[in-house]
Amino acid sequence: MAKVLIGCETSGIVRDAFLALGHDAWSCDILPPDTPTNRHIQDDVRTVMRADWDLMAVMHPPCTRLCNSGVRWLSQAPPGRTLEDMWAELDEGAKLFSAVWNVQHIPCVAVENPVMHKHAKARIENYQPPAQTVQPWQFGDDANGPDNERKRTCFWLRNLPPLCPTGSLDGTTARDTVAKASPGANRWKVRSKFFPGMAKAMAEQWSVHAFQHLAEAA
Ligand SMILES: C[S@@+](CC[C@H](N)C(=O)[O-])C[C@H]1O[C@@H](n2cnc3c(N)ncnc32)[C@H](O)[C@@H]1O
To answer: Is 8 in the pocket of ligand 1 (CB under 6 A)?
Structure first.
């Protein structure tokens, strides 16, 4: 069995896709899992990732201050917050992204985030443009299913190939649930939840490549 870390995940969607293929997959987050499981480590990903994850890691660090859609808050803070808070949170977000992107002892690493603004890119250590940008609907077959959504998703990849889309949808009926999530305490949760079709493609395609990479490196 090969050990796979899914960092910054409470939903278990990517973890369960790897588990379904028989991998020794674990999710990790500072928050508890959304549903009961013995496959979740509640801790800082920077601590957890130090262990011997001998196949690969998929990381979903928080994007709130890094993503293009929130760049306006860096020039006009939201009600009740200061600009100083916003820039401090940007620094924190860039630090966490840098830590998971630059982890060296895990053979293959994928980091997922939306499109980033220039202030985030400038703060990330060893920043590179994302290897690819995909949409959830590209991995779905059912127009009424959970994958038929629009959400530009970028992957930064080390020793992994871009994902090949697996679905038959063409995007014309894709929903905008993520962009239209209504304000409220749960908005970030709706906006950050992952998609099962893309998770399945990650597990199927990347685990094969990660094993090939290990064999070639041996
Ligand atoms: C954008 S959300 C990703 C959610 C994920 N796609 C899912 O389906 O559960 C970012 C997650 O990072 C977690 N997080 C923030 N700082 C963290 C840290 N230092 N270590 C581990 N998780 C962290 C948050 O609690 C949040 O669940």
So the answer is: yes
